[in-house]
Amino acid sequence: MDADAIVLERLRYLRGEVDYLKIERDSVRSFRQYAEDVRLKKAVERSLQVAIEACLDIGRHSIALGGFRYPEDNKDVFKVLQEEGVIPADLLPALVDMARFRNLIVHDYARIDDAKVYAILKKHLGDFDEYARAIATYLERQGRDREC
Predict the structure, then answer these.
(1) Cα distance between residue 31 and residue 116, in whole Å
(2) What pLDDT was estimated at residue 37?
(3) Is 67 left (phi over 0), alpha (psi -120 to 50) or beta?
(4) Stretch 47-63: mean pLDDT
(5) N or C: which end of the chain has fewer CB within 10 A?
(6) Where are the domains of the chain?
(7) Rounded to 5 degrees, what angle do the CA atoms 131, 133, 136 make?
(8) Which residues fall within 8 angstroms of residue 1, CB to CB, at 6 or more apart?
(9) What are the b/e assignments for 18-30, b being 16+ CB within 10 Å?
(10) Which range is least confidently modeled, 38-52, 55-69, 70-84, 98-112?
C-alpha cells in the first residue's frame, strides 16, 4: 500500500471514530451523566486515543510524502505540517493539545481528568474535521502538482 493510500485509509478510519464520538457527544446530556457512566468514559477515552493516533499516522505519512523534516515527537508532527503549509496556523494549538492528551491517556492514564475529556467531547471534535479537511486539501494539491 503506498503512502497516499495509507493516508486515505487513515482518513476514513478517523471519520469513523469522529462519527462515533459525535453520537456520544449528542447523546450525553450532562457532565454528571458522563462521569457516572464508566463504560461510556472508557469508550470515549479509547475512541479519542485512536482518533489522535490516526491523526498522527496521517501526519507522519504526509510528512514522508512531502519529504519534510523528520518530527522530533508527536507534537512536532503537527508543527512540521504547519511549517510546510499543510495545516493552518490557527489549528496548531489544538493539535498540539491533542498530542499532549494522547500522551496523558497512554502514559499517565491514572491522572485522566473526566472534565477535560468531557470538554474535548463537547467542544473540540471539530478540530478533527478541520485537520482532515486540511490533509485532504494537501493531498489534492499534491495530486495536481504531480499531474503537471
Answers:
(1) 10
(2) 97
(3) left
(4) 96
(5) C
(6) 3-143
(7) 110
(8) 9
(9) beebeebbeebee
(10) 98-112
What pLDDT shows up at residue 147? 45
pLDDT reported for residue 145: 53
Output the nine-digit C-alpha cell for 25.
457527544
Q: Please report the pLDDT score of residue 29 as a whole number.
A: 95
**Phi then psi dihedrals of residue 124, to 5 deg:** -125, 10
Phi–psi pair at 112, nearest 5 degrees: -65, 130
Counting every residue written for the chain, the total comes to 148
Q: Cα Rg for the chain, rounded, in angstroms?
A: 16
pLDDT given at position 144: 53
Of 23, 3, 24, which is closest to residue 118 (Cα–Cα)? Answer: 24
DSSP 8-state code for residue 120: H
Buried b (16+ CB within 10 A) or exposed e, 102-117: bebbeeeeeeeeeeeb
Cell 473540540 sits at which residue? 124
Average pLDDT, whole number, for the chain? Answer: 93
Q: Which of 34, 25, 30, 36 minimizes the C-alpha distance to 128? A: 25
127 pLDDT band (50/70/90 cuts)? very high
